Amino acid sequence: MEPPERGAGPATRDPARCRGGRAGGTAVIGALLPVGAVGAEVYDDPPGARLHPAEEAAMAHAVASRRREFTSVRHCARLALARLGVGYEPLVPGRLGAPRWPDGVAGSMTHCAGFRAAAVARTGVLASVGIDAEPDRPLRPGMPESIASPAERARLAELASERPGLAWDRLLFSAKEAVYKAWFPLTGRLLDFPEAEIRIEPGGTFRAVLLVPGPVVGGRAVRVLHGRWAAGRGLLVTATGVPQPARAISRTSAAREFTPSLL
Question: What is the CATH number of the domain that holds 106?
Fold first, then answer.
């Protein structure tokens, strides 16, 4: 996974993570991404997917399951970069395991059973992008207290009463992962779970407030990130990004209407 996992104890090593159900063929990532980003997704490991020699070297000692994930998600990255008009370069793990994207490109990747995806954008439009996919399954006991503030847990209880049957705690985890993936390329620093407070809306959006000094993009400090989420067929998918100030769009257009059960 990328970027490197954070140190909130067992919350980053849930054994149930990434074992969701098989999704349908709707273009989920494309519906969730910020304006200016493009994506690609697959729902299995494509038999024809291949690695660049430099990527092969990075996987020389990987177990078979890790190699399949690594290969499939880079297949998605190759497709997404092509849609952006950028030639593919090997995406080898860099500092702390995060992939090095081509110059002028912001990107993010995610994978779990039944879903692999990548998203990319020009850095002149989006300074960073973050996506995450998780199984629609509750976190194991004790994990919500590790990742969520009292206010976030109260909000999860409200959401559960409005729409029972959805793993809202796992969705919060996924949103925090997406925010982290957008944060890390701009700062090179870890972002612990309590350092961003997220409010999820049942209509398919979320808002993340950074509780620590954020990165400076275009001369402005980033304090809030907006994102979207989708749920269905055993999966939860989240996406966010940091727009360049000159390209920033209004909250109205950022939260354009869509159905949050797109999978």
Answer: 3.90.470.20
